[in-house]
Amino acid sequence: MIKFSNSLSPQPTPDGTPNFAWSSAMSRRDFIAASVSALALTLPLARGEETAPQPMVDIHMHRNLPRTRTAEQMVLHQKNIGATLTVVLPLVDTHDDNEEIFKFTQSDPTRWVCFAVEEAASEGAIKKLEQALKRGAIGLGELKDKIPCDAPQLQEFAALARDHDVPMLYHFEDGNRNDGYVRFHRMLEKFPTVKFIGHGPSFWAYISKDYQPHSGLPTGPVMRGGLTDRWLTDYPNFHGDLSAGSGNNGLTRDRAFAADFVRRHQDKLMFGSDCPCSTGLGRGCGSQAKKAAINALGLDEKIREKILYSNARRLLKLKAG
Q1: Where residue 71 sits, what CATH number does that domain have?
Q2: pTM of the complete model
Q3: I want to staple 25 with a disulfide (CB 3.0 to 4.6 A). Which of 5, 43, 91, 110 is the partner?
């Protein structure tokens, strides 16, 4: 029996934005909306024909974030946001480890692929990651250790990524995880063939030149010349992940700048969710808010296709999606 709840409890996120984390209960309104949407996706057209959904690759989802989200809810969430292929990322600070992620993604390899991650300071981390890559993981991340972003352990990870020709997805959050974003250009220069993907509060705060470290997630107009903008321009091996509240903030705080930013870096940016809601439809769904923010930029269809799937297909060497 499904238990219904009529409320959501906003939980703070590392980005400083509200995050409507669901309890194990689902609101009656969102359950009905989700069920109707899921049914609609399976109904044939009036002529008895079915059309394939427009492809959309989500490069950043966690199977069990929050911990109460079930595998069934994960499947429903991705169907409702329109993702045709999803990159599932394990986390070092939850029980969703590499093995759990492998089990989940192998249920349908045409719709789910995965990265692998280990705590950077843990014993045997490189060997475990190498084994995961040989089993089918297609990248390293989400890297979210409480160490400097250019720490020796992460340089060892980068060497592994270089040797296996896979990308690394970083969560940048100065003062907490992968600290020292202003120094990250050293990693880009030391490992020029490694495809680094940036995400998180510091990555998006530094689209503005006037950002001061540790001052929180900024709002309002963007001053051109920020580190992230410059590095996406100057380093062919640096790419951007639009996921999470920080990505939404970057797309909405200064819409004119965001439209120009996305157009200039149209070959470097990729859609990602990092959304914790259970249905992909409720008022707490960051994925739907992100799609709305992208639509509001007035991009032409070719650029939207790059952001929503073709950049990810190329960068991650995807065969589906």
Answers
A1: 3.20.20.140
A2: 0.84
A3: 5
Sign of CA dihedral 146, 147, 152, 154: positive
In a domain, 281, yes or no: yes
The label of the residue with tokens 């995400």 reads: 199
Cα 97 to Cα 37: distance, rounded to the nearest angstrom = 31
The CA distances from residue 213 to 15, 28, 35, 75, 205, in Å, are 14, 42, 44, 37, 9
Nearest residue to 294 (alpha-carbon basis) of 81, 19, 148: 81
Distance CA 315, CA 176 (A): 28
| Pair 237, 192: CB distance under 8 Å | yes
Taking CA atoms, 205 is separated from 148, 228, 250, 285, 307, in Å, by: 18, 8, 7, 22, 20
Is residue 33 in some structural domain? no
Distance of alpha carbon 134 from the chain centroid: 23
CB 217 within 8 A of CB 258: no
CA 313 to chain centre: 15
Q: For residues 74 and 62, what is the distance between their CA atoms, to the nearest angstrom?
A: 9
Full residue range of the structural domain in which residue 298 is found: 57-316
pLDDT tens-digit map of 88-137: 999 876 656 788 889 889 989 999 999 999 999 899 999 999 999 999 99
Q: How many domains does the chain have?
A: 1
